[in-house]
Design brief:
single chain, alpha/beta, 5-stranded parallel sheet, two-stranded antiparallel ribbon, disordered C terminus
């Protein structure tokens, strides 16, 4: 789209949306992002009177934009409380920078921030265990991160946790679930879809579900929100980066395809959900025998992976000792 003038007011545009055929200036782009977030919250009934919303804040662009939007929308509501929670995985200095940005943002917005550290809850740091296990670093870190976020939600008394999943994340999840044939995860696609029903589990909501990643990045730059960085332990051999690259190529050739994927994924999710018996014994949520956290078996994935890391670390130390 060659036009560099805002379709609303004629001022200089900051974005040209090929999938809509219009351009927007900073003001009208910002208004439009806010409208999208409000629509997602309203149509999904994501926030209700009396809710305490824990915002999963990493300090990065997605969660920073999400917190800013939620405070703008609900900040003056006395019947809704917003608190931020953050996880320090022990990745230095990468996480130190983003946690610092999170603290600064919360101070500016007058929002309480609670930080949980792997070192305090699991007695380890990702810097120390990276590449130690048989599975990828992101697998170990992601499972521990979700576990700790859930713990932090309970500690702050949250009714729901807002996570910064955007349209790209949702499209990637849909395609990955198709590839893996994972119908249970497909049933969880949506702004507020989680069949987990357990007093220790805090339901997740996705206010940014209908906003493209590149538009969140643009919004964050225009409003100086969050930091954009890359974790030093990320591994590109996993399925998600491949799917992300594929979908981005499709979007470049067929603007709007990400919205189509998410729209169709939502319809399929509804059909799949109707055909899954969540009351069946195999779909029931129990408590981990070791840590007491909600899980689908006797031992949760987090405890399984922590055991794997410990075995790998002990084996490495023994091998090192034998070499010496």
């Amino acid at each position: 789209m060659a036009d560099d003038k805002c379709s609303k007011c004629g001022k200089e545009a900051v974005i040209c949306r090929e999938y809509e055929g219009r351009a927007l200036c900073k003001k009208h782009f910002s208004i439009d992002i806010n409208k999208k977030v409000k629509k997602t919250i309203r149509e999904g009934n994501l926030v209700e009177s009396g809710d305490t919303i824990a915002v999963g804040l990493s300090g990065g662009k997605d969660s920073a934009v999400m917190l800013e939007q939620l405070v703008e929308i609900f900040g003056d509501r006395p019947d809704i409380d917003i608190v931020a929670i953050a996880v320090h995985e022990g990745i230095d200095p990468y996480r130190d920078e983003s946690i610092s940005a999170a603290k600064e943002m919360c101070d500016e917005l007058g929002i309480e921030l609670k930080i949980g550290r792997y070192s305090d809850y699991y007695d380890l740091k990702m810097d120390d265990v990276a590449d130690a296990g048989a599975k990828g670093n992101c697998t170990y870190c992601g499972i521990m991160r979700r576990d700790l976020l859930n713990k932090l939600c309970r500690e702050v008394g949250a009714d729901k946790m807002a996570i910064g999943h955007n349209l790209d994340d949702e499209a990637q999840a849909i395609l990955m679930n198709h590839i893996k044939g994972d119908m249970k995860r497909m049933a969880r696609i949506g702004p507020k879809k989680d069949p987990v029903n357990h007093e220790k589990f805090t339901p997740r909501i996705k206010p940014l579900r209908d906003v493209m990643e590149k538009e969140i990045a643009l919004y964050s730059r225009l409003h100086d929100l969050g930091v954009i960085d890359r974790c030093p332990h990320v591994q590109e051999t996993s399925l998600r980066p491949l799917v992300k690259s594929f979908i981005n190529r499709l979007e470049s050739e067929m603007p709007g395809i990400k919205y189509s994927i998410v729209s169709q994924g939502r319809e399929i999710s509804d059909l799949v959900e109707d055909n899954i018996d969540w009351d069946d014994k195999d779909n029931q949520i129990e408590e981990c025998d070791k840590c007491g956290e909600p899980c689908s078996g006797n031992l949760c994935r987090k405890c399984q992976l922590l055991d794997e890391i410990k075995v790998a670390a002990d084996s490495s130390e023994k091998h090192s000792f034998e070499l010496d």
